[in-house]
Known about the structure:
Bound molecules: ligand MTE, molybdenum atom
Number of domains: 1
CATH architecture: Alpha-Beta Complex
Distance between the termini: 34 Å
Largest sheet: 6 strands, mixed
Helix content: 10-25%
CATH topology: Sulfite Oxidase, Chain A, domain 2
Oligomer: single chain
Amino acid sequence: xxxxxxxxxxxxxxxxxxxxxxxxxxxxxxxxxxxxxxxxxxxxxxxxxxxxxxxxxxxxxxxxxxxxxxxxxxxxxxxxxxxxxxxxxxxxxxxxxxxxxxxxxxxxxxxxxxxxxxxxxxxxxxxxxxxxxxxxxxxxxxxxxxxxxxxxxxxxxxxxxxxxxxxxxxxxxxxxxxxxxxxxxxxxxxxxxxxxxxxxxx
Length: 202
Ligand SMILES: Nc1nc2c(c(=O)[nH]1)N[C@H]1C(S)=C(S)[C@@H](COP(=O)(O)O)O[C@H]1N2
Ligand SMILES: [Mo]
């Protein structure tokens, strides 16, 4: 059985440890997955609001958002349709910066993120704090392309990428969880790729 063990060992080490179970590496390409038609949102019309269970509802326009201290996140992203994109990078701000301005009430447990198209996705508040989630406007040094959510999208890289809503306009703090667009259509409420939480019941 030493032969079998050696064979299994080689196979295991050949698989990139950055790939969660059931995922493959798309390399340098970046697939587009969009349920609605791609909107055109000029930066003059762009607004992002944090509302709901907060002490103060706050809205940023493009200039106000871009005046916040930007930083870069680098790592891997994972789509539920089994592609992963490894070692990519985005520029923006941690969601914490926006939440610090709006001050979530102690009762807030979840967020609902809404796109200007009406797409929604729900997340536990714990998954969007402590620099785990980002609001981004650049990808690898270039303005975020329209089909990838430009001018501004959410980035929650530790969860499946359907949680990373494109064209975001609103982050609503909530005292309870409620399914967003894909979650109402059978996807998991949390979506941890390392636990393969693809569908409701996984
Ligand atoms: N507004 C909006 N955001 C969205 C989606 C969408 O259809 N509409 N698709 C989600 C899914 S399923 C994935 S995998 C990623 C795809 O992002 P990309 O097209 O930039 O790769 O966006 C997520 N955010
Ligand atoms: Mo996806």
